[in-house]
Design brief:
This protein has a single domain, classed as Sandwich (protein yfey like fold), CATH 2.60.460.10. Helices cover about 10% and strands about 40% of the residues. The chain contains two helices and twelve strands; from the N terminus they run ββββαββββαββββ. The strands form three sheets. Strands 5-6-7-8-12-11-10-9 form an eight-stranded antiparallel sheet. Strands 1-2 form a two-stranded antiparallel ribbon. Strands 3-4 form a two-stranded antiparallel sheet.
Length: about 170
């Protein structure tokens, strides 16, 4: 991973058949955090395209920073926080997991360190104590994890290796 995330900030179809008109089922598959994005919001997507999805809301401007802060409408971050960063240079750069969000391997906030190690056997730990791994299926992205003292995931970031929003 070219740029290790050191500072994490703490992100149906209706079926009916003519033979059984009274039978209708709604299925809604939750999007996964990775390997390329979260639902319609994809890593690398420009701010214009990300806004056009209708899935994000603006939180804070970039000012002198190269990035602006946003939230996913379905998973807003807490007060004073953002759920994703969009870089002027690389587009959607980092998506921070929020309650209810999971990776395709089933990892989310509250997962145990043991579950993370099992899901990601290539997991490494930076000198700063941050666990990170290349995203399976997307060599240009990473997951980074911070844990509680009890060994549960308290922060999970999904970002582009070349992101310039957090360090």
């Amino acid at each position: 991973m070219k740029k290790l995330l050191v500072a994490l900030l703490a992100g149906g179809a209706l079926v009916a058949g003519s033979a059984a008109p009274a039978l209708a089922a709604t299925t809604a598959k939750k999007p996964a955090l990775g390997p390329y994005g979260y639902g319609a919001v994809k890593l690398g997507m420009s701010a214009t395209k990300a806004k056009a999805t209708g899935k994000i809301v603006f939180r804070m401007g970039s000012g002198a920073s190269p990035c602006s802060g946003w939230n996913l409408k379905a998973h807003p971050a807490g007060k004073g926080r953002v759920g994703l960063y969009i870089s002027k240079r690389v587009g959607v750069a980092v998506i921070l997991a929020q309650k209810g969000m999971r990776t395709p391997q089933g990892i989310g906030l509250g997962s145990s360190a043991k579950q993370v190690r099992k899901a990601y056997p290539g997991l490494r730990v930076s000198p700063a104590g941050i666990s990170y791994v290349a995203v399976p299926g997307n060599a240009k992205a990473y997951y980074a994890f911070l844990y509680t003292k009890g060994g549960k995931v308290r922060e999970l970031a999904f970002g582009l290796d070349k992101q310039d929003c957090v360090n």
